[in-house]
Amino acid sequence: MHSDHYFTLIVGAPKCGTTSLFTYLSQHPQVAPCHKKEPNFFSDDEVWNRGWEWYCQLWDMTASGVVTALEASPSYTVKAATSAERIASVQADFRFIYMMRNPLERVESAFYHNYYRDGEKKHDSQEDAFKSLLPKTIGVSKYAENIKEYYQRFSSESILLLQLEDLKHNPTQMMRRICQFLEIDDAYQFADLNKVHNRRNSYREDTTWRKLTQIKQLKSLANLVPESYKTGLRTLLSQPPKDSKNVPPSLTEQQKELIKQELKDDLKQLSLDYGVDISKWGIHL
Description:
The protein is of the alpha/beta class. Helix content is 48%, strand content 9%. The protein has helices spanning 18-25, 45-48, 52-56, 75-78, 80-88, 103-122, 126-140, 143-151, 164-169, 171-182, 208-213, 216-222, 227-237, 253-274; strands at residues 6-12, 31-33, 68-72, 94-100, 159-163. It has a 5-stranded parallel beta sheet with strand order 2-3-1-4-5, sandwiched between helices. α5 packs parallel to α8 (143-151) and α6 packs across α7. The longest helix has 22 residues, at 253-274. It is globular and about 55 Å long. 32% of the residues are buried.
């Protein structure tokens, strides 16, 4: 990695549009996308042990004009303390983009994710599944608590907090803001900004995509496929069967109220300490 290049890490949070943002930014000629969108280098012990040189080889930085290496590993939020500490130990320049969304929607999305994968197999009822999955999904939804690990180790100028709702409703304006933060050409015209990547169906068990990912021989071949092509294939092959009845029940109002109470203190901190407008989420404390 050349000394005048820097790393841009989309560090999370999971289920907050990290795949879409990675795909959008990958279009920019000054951005080199990681060959694997989620290398999980700083969060996974096994991957971390492969070493810094292995990590740096995940990008092609030879194209003219490239200034930043991009990756997006939401696990850097799931394991925020470990990840931030390891990143801080490396002699390199980093910039961080932290994506957030309405925490009720994020928890519900995570709940659906787990339900599709194993919820109905492991739990007798929706309430049973909810109680089992709530501790993990709540922890990841504590945005202030998780991003604090990065603010403790890096300058505030190197961290950009974004709300998924802004990217959805004002994509062109938000991409310009991100480019300014990264100090790359903010006049670049991004394509397909209204296309959402990695929708809910991509992790269903009953889709062609999920069945293909379970074939061991195909996993090694998948690493050879560029991320841009892989994203398109995932979307195409992730449509559920027309006769599928595997639909998880929505969260109840009582469950949503419980989530709000669990996140109340963190949301206050997010608003007061980090200036995030939580009213955009229809949440008023």
